[in-house]
Amino acid sequence: MSSAVPDRSALSPRRAVYLIARRELLTRIRGKVFVIGTVVAVALIAVYALLQLLVIDRINTTTTFKVGFSGPATVLAQPVEAASPALGFKVHVSEIATDAQGRSDVRAGSLDALVDGTPGAPQVVVKTGIDPTLQAALASLAKQHMLSTDLSAAGLSPATVESQLNAVALRIDTLQPATAAQLQGPIIGFVMAFALYIFIGIYGGVIGQGVVAEKASRVVEILLSTVRPGQLLLGKVVGIGLVGLIQLGIIALCGLLFTVPTGVLALPGAAIGAVLIGVMWFVLGFILYALMLAATASLVSRVEEVSSATVPVTMLLVVTWLLAYVVAIPAIDAVTGGGAAPHGLATLTTVLSLIPPFTPVLMSIRMAAGEVPLWEGLLAILLVLGSIAGVTWLGARIYANSVLRFGARIRIRDALRR
Q1: What is the pLDDT of residues 156-215, one digit of tens each?
Q2: Domain 64-143 in CATH 3.40.190.10
Q3: DSSP string computed for 297-365
């Protein structure tokens, strides 16, 4: 009994890509690696949010010191108590009848410190040590008291002198004040670019290993009897990419749920536009690099050789990420207040951000910063879409000429031949 061989023409290109992507998505999303990796990542974010919340609560908790004053130093009690809230702590002051009683209270723990001596040369008695903030406050107020005393002795009013000093202020006149979106945009764009770099590093490797694993198991021979190489290549990239996006989305959503309500993270409305721009370049960048990684991975027949085969693409991604530091960041300083970038550097940034392999990372930062004209942004998108189409066609040829050939690594020149 024989079975009919599937006909490629029976499937439309869209249907073929959909079926391959669906197969990759369902196979991997049900796997233990996906489930365990997602749970571990969410748990780590939850622990981080909890630790940050504890730190924030500790920072926001006002420290209270119990300080006793005796002898002439008692005149410092009221100024210390009045000034303490502005310094980030509270001081409960009390007058101590004798120095011996104060030392006994410090030793017993009912006082954190005893201040005696003279206002100009106060002596602070503590049990084991003194808080640096309290020490600085006491020293500052003692100096201020002596200054007021000297001014009064010279016939000057301390209140008048203080008023005149407070009247001296530096006025800042900003000609082009940066908006909240401009200040947050570069940071969000940089974070999204970094996420793309990490994402490609993880799931790009998964795509490469998946290509070689199918090649080694001869499953690809069955698949290519039904779909074309380009459809198989694009379907694998889309399917595995969706797996990664779902995992990233779950982690990001849980991260927001853990951090925003607790106040660990604030996400203003002005940041939404920068996030959407970052997501767009994230998707386009992943598809572009994933196609290149899948095509180069098909040149080898063993999983151990995937890393060496994909080195050119990996190095291109590393260079792109370095350019984000060397080129893009100085140009963005002009928006965030760090000064305008040199003209030559700004021009280089513009040119490099229009070269498709560099575009997703550099444009993610530049567009989030709001320094890209509309025509330039549209041109960059069209160039990347055109590159994706070209890489798909070129990758399909490499894939078709390599994926059914086993043994030694195939040279790129041989893989490009018809």
Answers
A1: 676 776 676 666 666 766 666 655 555 666 777 777 788 888 888 888 888 888 878 777
A2: yes
A3: HTT-SSGGGHHHHTHHHHHHHHHHHHHIIIIIHHHHHHHHTS-PPPHHHHHHHHHHTTSTTTHHHHHHH
CA–CA dist 205, 123 (Å, integer): 67
Q: What is the pLDDT of residues 83-109, one digit of tens each?
A: 777 666 788 888 888 888 889 888 888
Return d(Cα 399, Cα 375) in angstroms, integer: 35
pTM metric for this prediction: 0.67
Residue 292: both structure tokens together: 């290149």
Q: Which of 114, 25, 34 is nearest to 68 (CA)?
A: 114
- Residue 319: other Cβ atoms inside 10 A: 12
Cα–Cα distance for residue pair 387/376, rounded to 1 Å: 16
Q: What are phi and psi of 95, to 5 degrees?
A: -90, 130
Q: Could you state, in order of their start, the residue ranges of all structural domains in the chain? A: 64-143, 179-415
